Amino acid sequence: MRFPNTITFSGFDAPTRVEADIYELEVEGEIPRDLEGMFYRVAPENQFAPRMGDDIIINGDGMVTMFRFGNGHVDYKSRYVRTEKFKLERAARRALFGAYRNPYTDDPLVHGRNRGTANTNIIWHGDKLLALKEDSRPVEVDPYSLETVGQWAYHGSLKSNTASAHPKLDPVTGELYSFGYAAKGETTRDICFYVADAHGRLVREEWFEAPYAALLHDFVVTRDHVIFPVMPTTTDLERLKAGGSHWLWDPDKPTLIGIFPRKGSVKDIRWFEGPPRWAFHFFNGYSRGSAVFVDACVADAQIFPFFYPDTNGRPYDPVKAAPKIRRWMFDLSSNERCFREDTLWEAFAEFPRIDDRFGMQTYRHGYVIANDPSREFKPGKLRGAVFNTIVRYDMESGDKSCYGLDEWSTTQEPVFAPRGNQGLEGEGYLLAVVNRYETMLSDLIILDAQKPQAGPMATVKLPIRLRNGVHGNWVPGYLLPQRA
């Protein structure tokens, strides 16, 4: 078995497949003593060379990594999520599942088996650590050993076949708001909206259909409303059966945003219409009277180049595909179907995060990684943007506080960790894995979230390389079960 020498499997993203325990990591600077807990993240990490000869980066097996902070020290652990797919392929010693979300390309030996990879996000809710991938149900992982416990379907209550990798946690009630799209099977328009209480018990489940079958990666919940964005990255069953791509950008379809009252029902959904747009990730949303505001990193076309040529055969356009910080405003008192869009910052920015204690309500600070084209990057051209800057963006004033990396480094998603559970918005730290191309190793940097421009308070040195991850989250130590 050999991995192909392609952009997905070479350079910094060459598979490492390393499950490791590293105690007492080397640290430059000083780790804040009040940083007590776990930083979990997950990344696609193919166990075997792809069945189809090549693959896209988001189709790898889920590898969970954990940085455990305590008393100024930090340890590291990584483990694969033992999904059904992972176990079947390990037993066969080869890849059995084919192209991304296309079961028609699988080996007949695994027909009808679970293709989920649990590789996109990892959250703590209801005293469970859950690894998520939007085409399947959550997978529970032990918060200390990272051993896989098994699929989690809320004691059999969850009827949807799928669950979003971007649920929303209510910082006031402790509830989890989530959804599954293609909830009855690939290419269906079925959406299952559900709510779990603070103890992890499913307390609400409602179903509705999207206007067309589309990729719904993220959504928004405010204190008063639920917002579902349907944007024209579309799927087609006949295309799948022919072995084609699951998703293609369709510029002929509009963006449709569905909004319904949080205390109401999906039967109350109202659809707003706008031009073709794409947003993988949202900062936050809030309601103010009859107005609903949503902030996101929004592009004029699908961001991923491997979802092209589009449905009209046109190639990827990197200018249209560049996401910018934008704000959408919906006037629920008006009979108009349109919504207002304002561009807040023109730079290429992605992986938006906030101080999650201020989710679902008015807030001020957003954190992104961005491309600063004025900064030299010595390794040369990379797939997509060179994320060489970590930014705190002031949503009220437009002010920016930026930490620019050196010419040999790029950054992954910044995750906010608060100083305790109380305090003002933004009082805390930003944790980000940094890719060091000069050494081909990884660091974890810790920034003061209120002044990231001051540079790292501490740099945690790793003797290994961590492939570009997707998402992660900070879990304070007091939330975790007490173990020796």
State the end-to-end CA separation: 41 Å
Which class do the helix and strand fractions yield? mainly beta
Uncertain regions: pLDDT < 50 for 5+ in a row?
none
Biggest sheet descriptor: 6 strands, antiparallel
Shape: globular
Radius of gyration: 21 Å
**Strand residue content:** 35-45%
Strand tally = 33
Q: Helix amount, in percent?
A: under 10%
Please work out how many helical segments DSSP would assign. Answer: 2
Would you mind describing this structure in some detail?
It is a single chain. The chain has a domain at 126-136 and 152-209. Helix content is 3%, strand content 37%. It is built from two helices and 33 strands. Strands 2, 28, 29, 30, 31 and 32 form a six-stranded antiparallel β-sheet that branches. It has a five-stranded antiparallel β-sheet with strand order 1-5-4-3-33, with no helix packed on it. β11 (176-181) and β12 form a beta hairpin.
Task: List its salient traits.
484 residues, mainly beta, globular
Q: What's the short story on this structure?
A:
It is built from two helices and 33 strands. It is mainly beta and 484 residues long.
What's the helix and strand layout?
Layout: E1 21-22, E2 26-29, E3 37-44, E4 62-70, E5 73-80, H1 84-92, E6 121-125, E7 128-132, E8 139-141, E9 148-151, E10 168-169, E11 176-181, E12 190-196, E13 202-209, E14 220-221, E15 225-230, E16 233-234, H2 237-241, E17 248-249, E18 255-261, E19 270-274, E20 282-288, E21 291-298, E22 324-331, E23 340-345, E24 349-354, E25 365-370, E26 389-394, E27 400-404, E28 409-411, E29 415-418, E30 428-436, E31 441-448, E32 458-461, E33 472-476
